[in-house]
Amino acid sequence: MTYLLSYLYCGVVCAISQYVIEKTKLTPGHINTGLVVIGCILSGFKIYDKIIDIFHAGACVPILNFGYLLVSGASEGYLKYGVIGLFKGILVNASAGLSIAICMAFIISIFFKVKH
C-alpha cells in the first residue's frame, strides 16, 4: 500500500503541474518555483510533515520536498543559532541532494556533448 500511495502522490503532483503548464502561459520554471513556495508554505504550517507521514517516500521525491527541506533547515538553524541560524541552516537538510545533483551533472557532461 505504501508503494501505491507514493506513486499516486507523485502522479497527482505531476498531473496537476502538467495541467497548469498546458492551460496557462506559465513556463516550467514558474511551475517549479511555485511548487517550492507551496512546499515552504505547507512546511511552515506543519502540513507537509503530515503529508510525509501518509505518503512516505512519495512525498520526499517531488520538488515540493525541496521547499520543505529549506524551511525545516532554516527553522532548525534558528532554534540552534538564533537569527543567523536562518542563513546557516537553510541548505543543511538539502545539501546531500544538491551535492549529488551537481556531481552527476558534471559526470554526465563529461560523456555527452551539447547539441545546438
Helix % is: over 70%
Shape: globular
Biggest sheet record: none
Number of helices: 7
Descriptive account of the structure:
There is one protein chain. This protein is 80% helix and 0% strand. Helix 2 packs across helix 5. With 116 residues, it is mainly α. It is globular, with a radius of gyration of 16 Å. It starts with a helix and ends in a 5-residue tail after the last helix.
Topology (SSEs and partners):
Blueprint lengths: L1 H22 L4 H17 L2 H9 L1 H4 L3 H18 L1 H6 L6 H17 L5
Helix pairs in contact: 2-5
Summary tags:
globular; 7 helices; mainly alpha; 116 residues
Kindly summarize this structure in a few lines.
This protein has 116 residues and is an all-alpha fold. It has helices at 2-23, 28-44, 47-55, 57-60, 64-81, 83-88, 95-111. The N and C termini lie far apart (45 Å).
